[in-house]
Amino acid sequence: MDLNVAIGGPQGGGIDTSSNMINRAFAEAGYNVFGVREYHSNIKGRHSYNHLRVNEERPRSLRYPVDIIVALDADTIFEHLEDVGPGTKIIYDRSFESSDLAQARMIMRDTARRIKETLDGAKFPNTVKGAVDYMKSRGGIPMPIPFNDVVASANAEGPAARYFNTLGSAVTLSIAGLDQKFTIEAIKQVFSNKEKVVAENVRVVEAAYRYASENGLAGKPLKTLQKKKRFLITGNDGSAIGKLMGGLRLQTYYPITPASDESTILEEHEEYSFIEGEKNRLKRGGVVVVQTEDEISAVTMAQGAALTGTRASTATSGPGFSLMAEGIGFAGMDEVPIVVTLYQRGGPSTGLPTRNGQSDLLFALNTGHGEFPRIVLSSGDVEECIYDAMKALNYAQRYQLPVIHLIDKNLANTTDMIPDIDTKRVPVPQTLKTVPSSDFHRYSLKTETGISEMGILGKDIFWMTGDEHDELGHVTEDTEMRDSQMRKRFKKLETALQEIPINDQAILYGPDKADITFVTWGSQKGPILDVMEDLKKEGISANLLYLKMFLPFPSEFVKKVLGKAKLIIDVESNMLAQAAMVIKLNTGISIEKSILKYNGRHMTEDEILKAAKDIYSGKSKNEIEVLQNGA
Amino acid sequence: MAHNFKNDVTVDWCPGCGDFGILTSITQALAELNLNGNDVVAISGIGCSGKTPHYLNMGGVHTLHGRSIPFATGVKLANPNLKVIVPSGDGDMLGIGAGHFVAEGRRNTGLTLIIYDNEVYGLTKGQAAPTMQLGEQTKSLARPNVFGKVNPITLALSSGYSFVARGFSFDMKQLKDLIKMAVMHEGSAVIDVLQPCPTYNNVNTMEWYRQRVYKLEEEDKNWDPVITPGNENQAEEKFQKAYTKGMEWGDRIPTGVFYDNRTIPSFTKRLNEFVPNYLDYPPSQQIVTGKDGYTPVDPYGTFAEKLI
């Protein structure tokens, strides 16, 4: 079984709760669910949906057309007009049918215009009924359900619309063939055993299953697999968990989508628990999370904390990161260990505040004036977010510089099921100094690695300045000292390149030699790995050069891999193919073919596959294939 | 032996600069408080004032223009045992860093802000600072100042600072005493220091100030700006008096303590209510490595609600 579902409704209408029910119900039956959340920059009313995939393995990508569309409002039908294929089941309330597109004011004007053109072009009326018929003409199977009647049959208290999300989920799960008991268990978990709410919703579930069964919608019973304990977490969660495990004890932030969830999660867990055996040795402390007045304050306050020996970080998104530029420069110049988690969204300016993007790579590599070393690393799935956040904190401490951890919005809002969290995968070296240094030279040039001993405010007397400085940290404009300190700082990057294992810099997935060599970073990793399997079935071999670290850059490894490649296709969520530019800058290798997407929506398996095949077969002569999936 | 807070780094301020008086007042105040070199740190911004930490024998960070406050807040939050003084210019605090200045009043972290108030940007050759009067023309201005001034005392009061004072850099005894009070104050303190710039401010000179400054407590024998626990009901009246005195400028300029409210909990105390053992084990004192070199944090226990 391999099921793709899109469940949509108005923002604030319980879409997340629906997905949570579906996730947990499948999890109870032993299945894994992978999902992405798409939403507008809006609190209530505009179209929001979750795209989910369920199977026995570990799903890592999403696909269109979906198998089931669940519309909790009329807009969802209009918005997902093109997402159906042969056999797609369309679940919606029969009462939506008369809704007119012209009245759907929460649909963006240009989206509504395009929907209208599609319906008019195919000669269907501009109503939900017309839209459903259009979907039917493309193989969709309409399943109108009297939402109000089904809820009424459950005798649930309050307005019926309150239960539409439970109803939609339950019908979906019934169609998928999932036993009702799992759905009821999910309801209990989602409503945290709030007795009355659970009881009302359980009755709605029962009514939904009853309706589905009586009307021939219920799928054939799904095999129950062995259930294993898993973490149900997002990329935001992963980064927060990794930071806490990695020793983070002070986090600053200014509210911004899609970054602030990470800080909120940390704040909710400001009291953390110790593993067995440590409880008596270490007195329980807490994590301090500070909401600052702006991102300039966030990045500088974290540095103040870092100077006391605290592992400190901040998290932001593009607009906030722009404000952090001067602060990051100070961390580079003054060798302050901080981590900035940069959640990339669609830019420039305010851009697409709630949508995906990977257009901040070059900016992350060049943030701030002047030349200073930094480490820029990127994560491509939820699990990586955990361990990369730990590594980022370690790198900051080891190399005493700003570490920028890139996570794209798609990944931040990906929900994944993680079998376990390994506390022994990444060591957390103790960096807290216990003995103060005498005759301390903070920026001592007596170092082979470029790394000099960290000064701790409160333990050592030393000075720091954003000006060029001498070994003591006092202002200097001496020509030789300037040259020496510049070289000392940059020496750390060479050290880092040697010390950091190659697997943490770049990974080659698949065979050494292949017909197609994909290059990517960030959240396209999962979809491309799936595309490679799809291609294999069609007799086309493919491998993937997956980039994790952009500074320092694994030039030798990349040269070696790309040197053997027959056809290189770069896949990124930006317009300029920024990673390809970085590769060219570092290796001289030009990548001629790119699959790019910058409409802000997540890349799906099917669209990458199609573009790759078009390029491979020569059907497309374009240098750049631009992907457009997604409502 | 008491720690000597003065070091031997060459001071490159102009001869006659008011900054010397501030530097001396800081070193004397810290010595009289019997602090050690590792008990206190100085976090500055940019400009002539920003150089102060280099001249002090204690941990010192010369940060970015306008950003001394957030850097200092981070230091204090991670290690609340440290005394954190913030020598910064009027441009630093009330121009480019005005947002941080207001935010810090709300936080009340426990910083000692010393504003070097000379009404000009000295190091960039005398442009008007946010504390310069409307219509004033100092010698390097091409035309009279077209902006109104921000009032450091009333802005500090409105922002929520729990200790607000003004000193004069040529009255080092008073300034030293103000710094001592400010450093020992639990919440955040602001001292607006009138500090003539002999090179670029030919209007507000040492003499100009000498003729105008007076001490609040000398003028009014009953002047009592202090609000102690149990007397919270005095806060409003004392705040209004402080505000009224803070408005005074021109022929007579008040100095001394305007407001000293000891009943507003500091940010660190507020955090201690929520973050377990925060004051006993602040972020800088926590051990982040387990016995075996791996994390001591248990993700299963900490994030139990995410387990399905």
How many domain units of chain A? 4
Outline the biggest β-sheet of chain A. 8 strands, mixed
CATH homologous superfamily heading of chain B = Thiamin diphosphate (ThDP)-binding fold, Pyr/PP domains
Unreliable sequence segments of chain A: none
Estimate nothing, just give the exact number of structural domains of chain B: 1
- What is the CATH superfamily classification of the largest domain in chain A? Pyruvate-ferredoxin oxidoreductase, PFOR, domain III
Q: Find the CATH topology of the largest domain in chain A.
A: Pyruvate-ferredoxin Oxidoreductase, domain 3
Q: Outline of chain B, from the CA principal axes?
A: globular
Q: What fraction, in percent, of the residue positions of chain B are helical?
A: 25-40%
Structural class of chain A: alpha/beta
User: What structural category do the secondary elements of chain B indicate?
Assistant: alpha/beta
Supply the CATH class of chain B: Alpha Beta
Overall number of strands of chain A = 23
SSE order of chain B: HEEHEHHEEEHEHEHEHEHEHH
Keywords:
heterodimer, A: 631 residues, Pyruvate-ferredoxin Oxidoreductase, domain 3, Rossmann fold, 4 domains, eight-stranded mixed sheet, globular, B: 308 residues, alpha/beta, two-stranded antiparallel sheet, 11 helices, 31% helix
What does this molecule look like?
The complex is a heterodimer of chains A (631) and B (308). Chain A has four domains: 2-214, 3-Layer(aba) Sandwich (Pyruvate-ferredoxin Oxidoreductase, domain 3); 233-418, Rossmann fold, CATH 3.40.50.970; 433-500, no CATH class; 503-626, Rossmann fold, CATH 3.40.50.920. In chain A, the strands form three sheets. An eight-stranded mixed beta sheet of chain A has the order 6-5-4-1-3-2-15-7, with helices on both faces. In chain A, strands 8, 9, 10, 11, 12, 13, 14 and 20 form an eight-stranded mixed beta sheet that branches. In chain A, helix 1 runs parallel beside helix 6 (164-175), helix 6 (164-175) packs across helix 8 and helix 11 runs parallel beside helix 13. Chain A has 21 helices and 23 strands. Helix content of chain A is 37%, strand content 19%. Chain A has 631 residues and is an alpha/beta fold. Chain B has one domain: Thiamin diphosphate (ThDP)-binding fold, Pyr/PP domains (Rossmann fold). Chain B is globular. At the A-B interface, helix 1, strand 7, helix 9, strand 8 and helix 11 of A face strand 2, helix 2, helix 4 and helix 11 of B.
